[in-house]
């Protein structure tokens, strides 16, 4: 039971991370119908910016942990958002009206570029970081220990999700975004600046991915330039699993993938956890092709 | 040069241009501060930071100037920009720069802007609309495809003659083999992506199945390459059917992600099942192919076998095997090409192209979608398997490292960059994607960086691929008003009746 709870917490925090990345995929897919393959790389850049910010703060002598974490969060979100914006501006916007495969290839190219860019600039070796937020919360007389970092991950993710949902459902920006998702041309005719909305979608997706990157840095304490690929694939899997285009679906898919991975590694060993993830994805798609929360696509002939 | 004199240069709106360039430079500043300006370095005490503000300043300055140049081209002052950009590129080339990265940005950026300026001067390109430009490029592509009727055989003859030219040393032959392997993979994937219109992101899985089939069969049973080649194809096709059966009813991007997942699953199995596959260490000592089972390519063959040089009474040379491998992959690739060109004229190929254009219309015309897609998938997988077992026998060593997603991406890039469904496009794209990085090996680290950027730039320049031009393989009122079937037979293989259709 204790072991089960332990894995549950691990799975939830991992799932929160996947969910945060998956939102970027699902929003972009919902609005322009493309797989933003470079999104995993954006998450990796977020992790690097967080690391660099922490080191900068350290060299400036700011060591008060809450302040450091806050500055890291803001700086990672800000700088990574600029990367998200630039990627969209350079690689995707000129291809808006092209055949469906063109932006995908462009995205794969961008992903290769960003990976090598970070590798050249920051070095290929993995970057270890001593724990910033050590300590555990022990439950059930010490049988279950939850590290503060994992707890913080879950709390921050919930807070972000709440804010984000408010943004999408309550503000005019969110309204414009949902309008573009339904019909870009009509939204444009009604005075929505479609280009700006799409740019902001990338900015928001990148900012959330940056938070995920920072969380991974805090939890695992080690990052390298290659972490983006697998995390990206899994987050996309999460988005598909939850039903692509659906925001709650992305979060749900992320949590499901995180839980599967945590329990599988907990009970069956960690070698095959990725196979388990993909197998479940295949099974879900076969029996429920629109994902868990997706709406069935209506085909017009 | 006439275009520039015709387009009366407007007065330059300096404030607007400067503002635009400054905005771009500001974005560049934000981009470069964390990753370029602050570098993490390993110190004995842990991670440390190094500052490189000079590089940030240089990058921001270059971006500012570059944007300024692009604005000026847009305003019709291409000639000045051309001179300046060329000068910048030359400066980067000849004058020593503080860092290598800066030099490459300077050369590449200067070259790109110079090329754009040249294009603007020569064609007045900036005045043309996107549609007109597409039309023009499409026309070129159509001409190339038309020309490929005689270009193709010439290219084949050249490829056949290549090993006997004095040019052919070990290194060039190796590059040729690599190139042909990717051409073959590209043609194989073209069946799925270009003809049947299914986006397969995990083609490397079948490549891996083929390679491991041969390696394991040779390792455990001592089977020869010539026996394993068909077996590997068969096993790869079987795995294609196994994967395809459940997932082919998925649509578009779901399908893409499942194939990607499948590619990863195969790789993870190869890594984790180490008792059987050797795990991350791979399999070494894979037997080399013999000369059709008749003779070996060794200097001193084992008892009871003949050596190739003895059979033909030649001086022994290690090049013989390389040349043999070169011809082997050339023939394999040509088989794929021939197969594709022929099958396009059969009902199966027609059905694929119809499926690509309109799924639903096909279903309502009574085409069994799943079976057709399954056939495309299995056939492409089979060719991937052939290529894989060739790869295994050429390398003599395989490991899961060789079958990562990036390989799938490269093969897909070859197909899409070439122009989907275009056979000659695959060759051109393979030359670009594989040949260029090989030619610039000394750039080492920057090779993949340039590769990624190149992919983006080609897509921006030609979103439909370099040689994308699709004429229907069959027309209702074809050439000179002859009926459909006649036009169909007139269609020369993969080229369709390009240029022949009455416009």
Automatic annotation (TrEMBL), chain A:
UniProt KW Hydrolase keyword: no
Pfam family, one: BPD_transp_2
InterPro entries: ABC_transp_permease, BCAA_transport_permease
Membrane-spanning intervals of the chain: 12-35, 42-62, 68-87, 148-168, 275-294
Subcellular location(s) per record: Cell membrane
Main location: membrane
Membrane topology: Multi-pass membrane protein
Highest taxon in the source lineage: Bacteria
Keywords: Amino-acid transport, Cell inner membrane, Cell membrane, Membrane, Transmembrane, Transmembrane helix, Transport
Family named by the database record: Belongs to the binding-protein-dependent transport system permease family. LivHM subfamily.
Official protein name in the record: Branched-chain amino acid ABC transporter permease LivH
Organism for this UniProt entry: Azospirillum isscasi
TrEMBL record, chain B:
Keyword Transmembrane helix attributed: yes
Highest taxon listed in the record's lineage: Bacteria
Entry keyword set: Cell membrane, Membrane, Transmembrane, Transmembrane helix
Subcellular location: Cell membrane
Membrane association type: Multi-pass membrane protein
Domain High-affinity branched-chain amino acid transport system permease LivHM N-terminal: 17-78
Main location group: membrane
InterPro entries reported for this sequence: ABC_transp_permease, LivHM_N, LivM-like
Transmembrane segments: 12-36, 56-73, 80-98, 104-125, 146-165, 177-199, 204-223, 229-248, 255-274, 322-340, 374-393, 405-434, 446-463
Protein name: High-affinity branched-chain amino acid ABC transporter permease LivM
Organism, as annotated: Azospirillum isscasi
């Amino acid at each position: 039971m204790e072991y089960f709870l332990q894995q549950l917490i691990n799975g939830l925090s991992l799932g929160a991370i996947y969910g945060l990345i998956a939102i970027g995929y699902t929003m972009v897919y919902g609005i322009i119908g493309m797989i933003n393959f470079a999104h995993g790389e954006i998450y990796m850049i977020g992790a690097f910016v967080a690391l660099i910010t922490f080191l900068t703060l350290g060299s400036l002598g700011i060591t008060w942990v809450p302040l450091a974490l806050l500055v890291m969060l803001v700086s990672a979100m800000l700088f990574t958002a600029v990367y998200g914006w630039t990627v969209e501006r350079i690689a995707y916007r000129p291809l808006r009206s092209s055949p469906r495969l063109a932006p995908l290839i462009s995205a794969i190219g961008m992903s290769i570029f960003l990976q090598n860019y970070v590798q050249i600039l920051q070095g290929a070796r993995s970057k270890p970081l001593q724990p910033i937020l050590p300590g555990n919360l022990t439950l059930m007389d010490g049988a279950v220990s939850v590290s503060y970092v994992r707890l913080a991950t879950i709390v921050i993710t919930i807070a972000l999700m709440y804010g984000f949902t408010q943004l999408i459902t309550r503000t005019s920006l969110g309204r414009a975004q949902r309008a573009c998702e339904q019909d870009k041309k009509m939204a444009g005719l009604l005075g929505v600046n479609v280009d700006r909305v799409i740019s902001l979608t990338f900015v928001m997706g990148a900012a959330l991915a940056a938070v995920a990157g920072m969380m991974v840095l805090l939890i695992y304490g080690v990052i390298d330039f290659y972490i983006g690929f697998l995390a990206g694939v899994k987050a996309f899997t999460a988005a598909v699993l939850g039903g692509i285009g659906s925001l709650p679906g992305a979060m749900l898919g992320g949590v499901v993938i995180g839980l599967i991975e945590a329990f599988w590694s907990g009970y069956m060993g960690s070698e095959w956890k990725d196979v388990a993830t993909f197998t479940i994805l295949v099974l879900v798609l076969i029996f429920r092709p629109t994902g868990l929360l997706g709406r069935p696509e209506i085909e017009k002939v | 040069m006439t275009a520039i004199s015709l387009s009366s240069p407007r007065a330059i709106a300096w404030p607007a241009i400067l503002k635009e360039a400054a905005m771009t430079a500001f974005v560049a500043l934000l981009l470069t501060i964390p990753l370029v300006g602050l570098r993490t370095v390993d110190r004995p005490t842990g991670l440390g930071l190094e500052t490189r503000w000079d590089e940030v300043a240089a990058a921001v300055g270059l971006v500012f100037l570059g944007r300024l140049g692009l604005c000026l081209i847009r305003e019709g002052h291409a000639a000045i920009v051309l001179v300046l950009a060329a000068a910048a590129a030359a400066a980067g080339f000849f004058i020593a720069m503080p860092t290598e990265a800066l030099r490459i940005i300077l050369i590449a950026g200067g070259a790109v802007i110079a090329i754009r300026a040249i294009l603007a001067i020569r064609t007045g390109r900036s005045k043309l609309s996107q549609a007109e430009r597409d039309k023009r490029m499409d026309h070129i592509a159509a001409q190339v495809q038309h020309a490929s009727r005689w270009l193709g055989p010439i290219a084949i003859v050249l490829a056949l003659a290549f090993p006997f030219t004095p040019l052919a040393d070990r290194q060039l032959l190796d590059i040729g083999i690599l190139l042909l392997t990717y051409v073959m993979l590209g043609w194989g994937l073209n069946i799925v992506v270009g003809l049947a219109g299914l986006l397969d992101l995990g083609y490397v899985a079948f490549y891996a199945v083929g390679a491991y089939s041969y390696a394991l069969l040779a390792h455990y049973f001592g089977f020869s390459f010539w026996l394993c080649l068909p077996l590997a194809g068969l096993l790869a096709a079987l795995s294609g059917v196994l994967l395809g059966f459940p997932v082919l009813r998925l649509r578009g991007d779901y399908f893409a992600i499942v194939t990607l997942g499948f590619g990863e699953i195969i790789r993870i199995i190869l890594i984790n099942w180490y008792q059987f596959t050797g795990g991350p260490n791979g399999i070494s000592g894979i037997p080399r192919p013999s000369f059709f089972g008749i003779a070996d390519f060794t200097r001193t063959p084992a008892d009871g076998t003949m050596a190739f040089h003895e059979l033909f009474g030649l001086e022994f040379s290690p090049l013989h095997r390389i040349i043999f491998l070169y011809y082997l992959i050339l023939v394999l690739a040509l088989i794929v090409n021939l197969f594709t060109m022929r099958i396009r004229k059969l009902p199966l190929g027609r059905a694929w192209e119809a499926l690509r254009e309109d799924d639903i219309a096909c279903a309502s015309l009574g085409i069994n979608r799943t079976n057709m897609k399954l056939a495309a998938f299995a056939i492409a997988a089979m060719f991937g398997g052939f290529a894989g077992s060739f790869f295994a026998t050429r390398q003599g060593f395989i490991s899961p490292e060789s079958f990562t997603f990036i390989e799938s991406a490269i093969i897909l890039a070859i197909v899409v960059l070439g122009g989907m469904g275009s056979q000659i496009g695959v060759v051109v794209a393979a030359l670009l994607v594989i040949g260029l990085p090989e030619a610039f090996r000394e750039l080492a680290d920057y090779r993949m960086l340039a590769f990624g950027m190149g992919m983006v730039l080609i897509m921006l320049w030609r979103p439909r691929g370099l040689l994308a031009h699709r004429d229907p393989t069959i027309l209702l009122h074809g050439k000179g008003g002859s009926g459909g079937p006649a036009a169909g037979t007139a269609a020369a293989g993969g080229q369709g009746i390009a240029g022949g259709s009455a416009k």
